[in-house]
Amino acid sequence: MQPVERSDPDGVDFGWVMQTTFVVTILVGSPVVAVLSTTTTLPTWGARASFAVRVGAVIWFLTAVVVYLYARRTNAGDGGVGRPDADPNTED
Question: Which has the closest alpha carbon to 9: 56, 64, 62, 77?
Answer without folding.
Answer: 77
